[in-house]
Specification:
It is a single chain. The protein has 147 residues and is α+β, with helices and mostly antiparallel strands. The protein has one domain (7-139): PAS domain (Beta-Lactamase). Helices cover 24% and strands 27% of the residues. It has a five-stranded antiparallel β-sheet. Strand 3 (109-113) and strand 4 form a beta hairpin.
Length: 147
């Protein structure tokens, strides 16, 4: 086997994060609350996540926390910056548009990009609207996380 993760392994890593998100939902709520999110509960997979705060009127997305493996792959720190202030290149290429789609649909969104990486965005509810997005990025060129 090569050092690159297979599509099935990437999907498994992202499925683990989706399962965590599903477990956080309270009762009949379709979206979990942002105050229930604990990145430490994701163990090794948290290194491949980005936590984004959603601002409304106008809609903007600011990176709160960027996992160290994501910043390493990107090549520069970007925590504390708005997505429109960050040069669009993998694995952040197209992220703002995908975040907007999640905000409008109020549901998780999965995208795979040119066999390089896959991205899952999960919404979180707070303050009467979606106020947080958890972005999980799985690169097809990395070893899958082992839990």
């Amino acid at each position: 086997m090569t050092s690159a993760a297979s599509v099935a392994e990437v999907e498994r890593d992202l499925a683990q994060i989706q399962a965590y998100w599903d477990r956080l939902r309270r009762g009949e709520n379709s979206i979990p609350f942002s105050d229930d999110l604990r990145l430490t509960s994701l163990s090794d997979t948290a290194q491949h996540t980005v936590l984004i705060e959603v601002f409304h009127d106008p809609v903007r997305f600011r990176v709160d926390i960027a996992g160290p493996q994501i910043e390493k792959h990107y090549g520069a720190p970007f925590a504390g910056k708005f997505l429109d202030e960050i040069p669009a290149r993998g694995p952040l290429d197209g992220l703002s548009a995908q975040c907007q789609s999640v905000l409008e649909a109020r549901t998780p969104c999965f995208e795979a990009h040119k066999q390089q990486f896959a991205r899952l965005i999960l919404p979180f509810w707070g303050n009467g609207h979606i106020d947080m997005l958890l972005v999980a990025i799985a690169s097809l060129g990395r070893e899958p996380a082992r839990n």
